[in-house]
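Appendix B, record 7
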Amino acid sequence: MDEYRRIADRVEAAVRDGRLRPGDRLPPQRVFARRHGIANSTAIRVYGELARRGLVVGEVGRGTFVRAAPPLPGPALAEATGAAPVDLQLNYPAAEGQSELMARALAALARPDVLAEAVSRPAAAGGTPEAREAAAAVLARPGWAPDPDGVLFAGNGRQAIAAALSALVPPGGRLGVEALTYPLVKAVAERLGIRLVPLALDAEGVRPDALEAAHRAAPLAAVYLQPTLHNPLSTTTGEARRAELAELLRRLDLTAVEDTTWAFLVPDAPAPLAAHAPERVLLVDSLSKRLAPGLTVGYLVVPARFRTVAADALRSGAWTAGGLALAAATRWTGDGTVAEAVAAKRTDTGARHALLLRRLAGHALRTSPHAYYCWWELPSPWRAETFTAAAAARAGVAVTPGSAFAVGRGTAPDAIRLGLASPPHAVLDEALTRLAAVAAEEP
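Structure tokens (predicted):
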């Protein structure tokens, strides 16, 4: 085993057994090298390996810190706080009565003749004509409706993203992403050998000048964007900026993957980037947030010139939708289940947003009344990793540090993301109250 990995193993053991605790600062790399009798270049590789394992995070001008440990088991957490742990990392919304709504379609699928058709063979990447028409109806919004022939199906939205990136970006290729992006994209890129290039953001999302500069520096294979309800910042790009980005994609001969997973929550959202540059954009979405993650499908709307390569990526990655899930999704669209659940969740976001503003009044929050998440820029002197550990230990609340979303070195902000969707309202209210109390304390 390489020397730097052996040393990284020893540091990891110190983290796991508590000799190094969340928030502890590691020595500067030169000091670390002297203490361990190794070259500075080896120390750099040790720190890089620790960051790759998710054990440490580097902060410009401050050093390298041990990241928050994984959440403690439930009983220990409950003993420490006197209350059950609350997970504000997961973010799966559930509307009241949703299970009863979904049961209608599942009851119909239970008929032997219907069930046999759904499970007798694997679903093709392109599904069935009926499924494509249903998907086009779900995804359509003012100013845009997808061509049903361009719809492909994945097992879920994450698999749709993976297939799109696999189809567009070769191993070693460069993918432009928002400087704060969906953590799954970081994981998928690592698995596929894709290099992520952070793009600077402003109040509307990716800055066109940042995208152009990154591409001019070294060509990008594609760009991944979340123009509506960006996760984690909740920003929505305006029509003019979307048109500007679409023109830039054409001028630079670039293709974009547009993630609209959360866009259904915004009734008056601008038309997607795919409406401005349909030949340049692969749009991904899913039913996971509209309905539930346990039985879902992912959607991939693909321009004609990319359909074959995208379908091949779905098949080769084993990312195609299951027949039963595809049949259920088609029925849920046709019988009004999806529309009812969407309407209920749009109302629910407003109620949760009101709880958030009440309990964290006066704090620096970036969110939207349509969003099921919030970006909280922590009060000084709190750092994100330290606060994450304190929230778990003192309040029994699991949150996500900003480093999980940051792309590139030295960009980890002192902020956390709160997922507001999963707990019942009363539990969320109590969790936010506990977090406010932790923020008022000293680190």
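Remarks on this record: The radius of gyration is 23 Å. The chain has 17 helices and 18 strands.
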